[in-house]
Design goal:
The protein is mainly beta. The protein has one helix at about 10-15, and strands spanning about 5-10, 25, 35-45, 45-60, 70-80. Helix content is about 10%, strand content about 55%.
């Protein structure tokens, strides 16, 4: 299990926090795996707000028919607020 420190915009932060958004589309520039933790740090106008959510990766989609080259879709569930 790896913890990934990532930035997230306010509208997406709120949607993850409220359980509406259960996925992340990310550049596939890290070895994302099922069981990893995403530490999502809210950023507004380039400044960290101090709000953070931890989410567990439950599925990783890298199929070229569904993901733009160099990107992946991560299914997530909120682990801690």
């Amino acid at each position: 299990m790896t913890q990934h420190e990532l930035k997230i915009l306010p509208e997406y932060f709120v949607a993850v926090r409220d359980g509406i958004k259960k996925f992340e589309v990310r550049k596939d520039d890290r070895p994302f795996e099922v069981g990893d933790i995403l530490c999502l740090h809210e950023i507004n106008c380039g400044v960290l707000t101090g709000r953070t959510i931890k989410a567990e990766v439950t599925y990783v989609l890298r199929h070229p028919d569904y993901c733009k080259e160099g990107y992946c879709i991560l299914s997530i569930k909120v682990a801690q607020q």
